[in-house]
Amino acid sequence: MKTVTEFPRKVVEFPDMGIVMPDGCRLSARVWMPEDASDDPVPVIIEHLPYRKRDGTTFRDQLTHPYFAGHGYASIRVDMRGNGDSEGLMDDEYSEQELQDACDVIAWAAAQPWCNGNVGMMGISWGGFNCLQVAAKQPPALKAVISLCSTVDRYADDIHYKGGCLLIENFGWASTMLSYSSRPPDPLIAGDNRWRDLWLTRLENQSFLAPLWLKHQHRDAYWKRGSICEDFSAVKAAVLSIGGWHDGYRNTISHLVSNIEAPVKGVVGPWIHKYPHYAGPQPAIGFLQEALRWWDRWLKGAETGVEDDPAYRAYVMDSVRPARWHPERPGRWVAEKEWPSPEIKTRTIELLPKGSKPAIVASPQNCGLAGGEYFPFTFGPELPGDQRPDDALSVCFDQPELAEAIDIVGSPEVEVTLSSDRPQANIAIRLCDVHPDGASELISYGVLNLAHRDSHEFPQALVPGETVSARVVLDQCAYRVPAGHRLRIAVSNAYWPMIWPSPEPVQLSLSAATLALPLRPLAKGDEATFAEPEGATPWATETIRAANSERHVDRDEKTGIVTLSIADDFGAVRDLDHGLVNGSIARETWTIHPDNPLSASGKTHWTQTLSRNGWSVRTETWAEMRSDAQNFIVSARIEAYEGEKIVFERNFEEKIPRALV
């Protein structure tokens, strides 16, 4: 990445600008703006997050926000209520209070003498979610949005449920937020006499969100609120949507470009859950330059040509050898003037010829361990690996060797006709690229709770032995399968630890299956280009402990239990400006017996540390999830330390009835 040190306008930074909400709660914001903004007002760009601007997102903030400010914007990074250096309490993600706070921040910013009245909102993941939800509320000053790695549907395409199946990320993310939000404000910001009171109040009101999310197992009003797919027309601001093929939120770009009535464009690269000017796998792109083109057009009225950009730009990835991490993905950029594209044709493939004997699907519960993380994050061993271990536990339909290459661009679908021997059953379908030597690379996958075959809102139990039809939609993808390779469609009724298992072992009898494959004419080269990545001067830190990620799968040959152990040490660094040292370690353990779905268990343990000179604090959080045939059982614990003295402890435990999940 090219570091830019000279900008058209000189930048001034305010590390703690207080924004007081109508109820008196003070939100802490880090603000960069042109030094002469009071004389020459500028548009504002807002990023509104719970992830701590003082230490949590500083790496990316330092690359991004001064860059925007140097090009004529006031760039504001706000700590959400109840997090970081802000006052107040947070009780859930995307609450009405959070969204109203964002609207109030927008109104505050638009009224400042250094603002020209136009505001944009941006963010990745949580920030990508809330900027779309805020846009649907139509605050008057909000003219444009850049949303990365986000969703339009909080139930069907987030970390909670997928295809009506319970994602283990539902528990994993609740555990993460329990840890993230357990940390105190910085005493240099909150004050030596206030930080502890704010911290203890925060801890006393800390929510463990897993039970709340588990109480909404169907697509009810809880999930509909904030899901902009309920009314795409509510979004009036211009939307630039960006995502990555190695991220869990790869479908949103297509959904937005296909449905938003306001100006909208989409870009999907080969990336994990990161901003694309520093993301991996390579190639990264000049995201900040693309963002400026968007902001300049919709916040300054400049003619930048963004309206003439293709509706949808996607990176078609070449076939590679399966690996848990790819530093780069060879391929090419394709461009579609409109999306869905008339250039993409559907090839239909019957997987079970008529008259064939039904295929029996009865996967061991540990099928799925090659699937990787839902949204890879660490530049480490989190991508899907060689699929052969999972293929061996699935029913596979191998297609003939390809005589010529094909480009799969879009969302494959599989129509199935089957019966189940249990009232609740899951099905997972993977589309794989099989190399000549047998190596199997994951192209895309989809899962479906068959009780949700007709509705996520009103699921219906299966009648054992009764034949039903269902459609399994696989995730969007853009992938070139070369000549000499074969397609494999692998079907299982377990996908651990991506989804929580059914309460009983299940056998499916698959009598028909039809693959609908979206094929695009072969791209001969790049149809779109991007500038090389740029960024402002990187965050100045001293490494105290290097980061490291590990992942191990073990099988106890005596008991048969299979365990996935994950350790992500995010390291510890000292900020060379204000001296704060922050460190973080996450540990996860997922265990299951191949024959027993009720043996499934997930455990997490997070450690967070903050220190400066003689001051130090630490929080430890633990969480566990298991289930019986009737209930989910979740528990958690927080311990908070000042120095080596424990100053707070709290336990959580709750049992939630299963509802056809």
TrEMBL record:
Answer whether the UniProt record assigns the keyword Hydrolase to this protein: yes
Q: In what residue span(s) does the Xaa-Pro dipeptidyl-peptidase C-terminal domain sit?
A: 292-540
Alphabetically, the GO molecular function entries are: hydrolase activity
Which Pfam family would be a valid example here?
PepX_C
Q: Key word Signal present in the record? A: no
Keyword annotations of the record: Hydrolase
Q: Which Gene3D superfamilies match?
A: alpha-amino acid ester hydrolase ( Helical cap domain), alpha/beta hydrolase, Galactose-binding domain-like
Write down the PANTHER family for this protein, in alphabetical order: COCE_NOND FAMILY, PUTATIVE (AFU_ORTHOLOGUE AFUA_7G00600)-RELATED (PTHR43056:SF10), PEPTIDASE S9 PROLYL OLIGOPEPTIDASE (PTHR43056)
The protein in question is named CocE/NonD family hydrolase
Instruction: Give the source species.
Output: Mesorhizobium huakuii
Its ancestry begins with:
Bacteria, Pseudomonadati, Pseudomonadota, Alphaproteobacteria, Hyphomicrobiales
